[in-house]
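Long-time lurker, first post. I've been practising inverse folding by hand and with some scripts of my own, and I keep getting stuck on stretches where the structure tokens seem ambiguous. Below is the full token string for one chain I'm working on. Before anyone asks, I'm not after the true native sequence, just a reasonable design that respects the backbone. If someone could post their per-position residues I'd love to compare against what I wrote down in my notebook.
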């Protein structure tokens, strides 16, 4: 699943949402801290982080 990074424009908090592409299309993202809908997606990091366990 892709991870989507966002930054809240109100409180400047960074947060990450993990959801499918279809969910992302319809999702209304809210800041988890202040519940603002004014969030900006950070497109720099778009891929799911794959953690390899050794
Ligand atoms: Zn916020």
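-- Answer (accepted) --
I ran through it position by position. Result:
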């Amino acid at each position: 699943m892709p991870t989507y990074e966002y930054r809240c424009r109100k409180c400047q908090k960074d947060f990450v949402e993990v959801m499918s592409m279809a969910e992302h299309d319809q999702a209304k993202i809210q800041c988890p801290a202040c519940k603002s809908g004014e969030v900006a997606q950070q497109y720099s990091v778009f891929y799911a982080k794959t953690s390899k366990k050794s």
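A couple of notes from the structure itself: Strands lie at 3-8, 14-18, 39-42. The two ends are 21 Å apart (CA to CA). Happy to go over any region you disagree with.
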